[in-house]
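Now read these lines:
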Amino acid sequence: MARVGPHPAVADVRRAVREALADVPHDALILAACSGGADSLALAAALAFVAPRLRLRAGLLTVDHQLQPGSAQRARTVAETGGEMGLAPAEVLTVDVGTAGGPEAAAREARYAALAEAADRLEAEAVLLGHTRDDQAETVLLGLARGSGPRSLSGMAARAGRYRRPLLHLPRDTTVAACRAQDLTPWDDPHNEDPRYTRVRVRRKVLPLLEAELGPGVAEALARTAAMARQDADALDAWAETAYQDCALSDIGGSVKVAVAELDKLPDAVRRRVLRRAAIAAGVPSGALSATHILAVDRLVTHWRGQKAVDLPGGLSAVRRYGTLILAISPIP
């Protein structure tokens, strides 16, 4: 009798994980970040299957945000499930979620901080995240709604530092089917149904409406757009980095000076990236630096009328003097 292979959805998830780990050295530790939902649970199961075949060690991290009754027990259950899969270590990371930036942003910040600490402590080579193609489509739509630039529209990266997202090209239906085929019972987070969260409204209302009005395949098209936007943004960022090295006259001690004549030669998209790079080098917090700030600084280069300094976050400012753009702690002497 011919050997029967795994369910197609299981095979797809395993293949995605195997390809994402193809370059990892033998005996390295790989951790799956698992909330207990279908996406991350299917990911954890695939890692447990693939890792021994690639001669890798595999573990699991689950984060208890302490935002719901019973969250500690659910986190322990997820860790126990990981242990039953053969994932070791399988740890619960308990975090305190702040309020800065709203509940979604605060929870995300606390979660990633805990994952980073655990990965450092355990000397992990990589942390796998269970984001799918549907998550990518939601991210692109949110970026569009905010009027974000190409970098935001490029969505989530398949790799970013130690983090890897093997499932970005797979639909959420695949992870659900993979769990069902392996008799895994995902936990449905009530927050995923709470319309107070913007992403939930995009998932439950906006994307289905687009599919109904424009036809199937919208999520796939948005994810494809994100991939192309990321390629373009990466190329522009590389150009801007080279241009910054050519334009910068000094980059020492929190004061950056840039040659206006060199900036003025650059296309808008590259010049504004150089200005952002210069502002961050001077000490402006990157998370507080908006497109409005960059456009105001850009006018010092392209529409110079002797205007006063531009105030920037973090107590810094930008001013033009004698053909030089200076970004430093305000007031600039």
